[in-house]
Amino acid sequence: MSPAVKNGSPATNYSVGRLLLIGLLFHIVFIGSVFDCYFTSPVIHGMQSFQTQGAEAKRLVLIVGDGLRADLLLNENPFPKIKDSPTIVAPHLRSIVETRGAFGISHTRVPTESRPGHVAIIGGMYEDVSAVTKGWKTNPVDFDSVFNQSSTTFSFGSPDILPMFARGAIPGRVLEWSYSPEEEDFTKDAVELDYWVLNQVETLFRNATTNPVLKAKLHQNKVVFFLHLLGLDTTGHSYRPHSPEYMRNIQAVDTIVKRTEELVNNFFGDEETSFVFTADHGMSVIGNHGDGHPDCTRTPLIAWGKGVRGPLPDTFPSSHDEYSKPWGLNNLYRRDVEQADIAALMSALIGTSWPVNSVGVLPDVDPDRPGYLAPKLGKKALAEAAFVNAKMILEQYRIKHELKTAHTLFYKPYPPLESNQVQTRIHQLEQIQSLISTSKWDESRRASHTLIKQSLAGLHYLQTYDRTLLRTIVTFAHIGWMLYASLYIIRPLDQPRQQVAKSTANEAMKFFPLVIADRGYRISRDWM
Hints:
The chain is an alpha/beta fold. The chain has helices at residues 16-38, 70-74, 91-99, 114-123, 146-149, 163-166, 191-208, 212-218, 231-239, 244-268, 294-297, 341-350, 379-407, 415-418, 424-437, 441-463, 467-490, 497-527; strands spanning 5-6, 9-10, 59-65, 101-107, 152-157, 174-178, 223-229, 273-278, 298-305, 337-338. The chain crosses the membrane at residues 20-39, 469-490.
């Protein structure tokens, strides 16, 4: 008999090597499908840019305290276990909140890391998830930002943060002053990094007094100054956020904010500057961040200066909750925002084109809730800013919708925006424009707010459009792989079907006496 035939049936070659090779190839494809499902970049290009007519402020100062928690900045007596700790740890920022600024919590998203936080604040978009392949250090796809839309941005701080906004920007638009990476030493006092930033700002203004070219550049409209203060993050990692070192670093940041405001006001000699102070993320009690714990996602937002409203009395029901009661600011209105909303606020203040990748919502879009802009801007300006916000987000939806239409078979459009022969979104834009033309400011803001929410939902719909199909394909592929692998265990083709059945019966008979014996034992045990 031929060796290829055994017991009247061809022998099957169950090669373990072949199984391993097929398994390796399958899992490579499977892992790739995970990235295709969940780590596809949301960043697209080709959108038209929009901006508000005119600007309230000539320039903007953005100060980011890296790793600063909202409660440890604003609580009364935030460090009770530290002997002789002050009741108010940041008196200058506190005085701004109480007398001449607007404040609230900026809610971040996971991952609560420095790079994603800055992308949200300055780019108005949440972290490109495909950047996980780069360890959250750089972006695989260039994106727009407030800095790129400014006339010039003067940025000071960490070499881990500043370069990513210069990349992809117009050459010479974003200027950088950063210390060397070796200076980020966890064994040294990190406060020195923050004072280094302040020294560079002082040097810049001092040099401008003798440099006409630099002076002219500084006096342009739509100039942005960015101060990235890394010390708190470094100190929190090394000593934990409830330590004396972290407390002293908050005090140092407060001093730097005060000194920066003095430098700007003295150099320009006017009141045409808007100031925004915030943080990229918070920090847990053990000194880490990255997850979605509230200690990591709740960061402070304080805005003041030109174009920003002053303090407002609290509303009913109160804008405060248990988290902010220890602040001792319950008499003042707290206005929370999503982190990406800060980019929209900054663009509106200095009148730049909004970042084309921004999904931030201007806090003043909703007419039923006070925002951050000064009421003296007038309802018309607020209505037009809300309309710009709606058009900017809808433009991203339009581009993604067209891309999906061109590359997807049997594509089903997002019904709220594409339900009629004439797209609903175009009709909504015309309706908002009509409301503005007839001076119905509040109605137009409500219509813009509705369109913004629909556009954001549409973007999410398009971003996740293929996930159900991909999950189904991956699920059935994995089931198929398990069934195929099981053949190497069962080996049903090694012998004829009749012999398999006979062998199975014989095996069962071998265990039958054991079953009977076990049953008898159980019965006898129950009667005892």
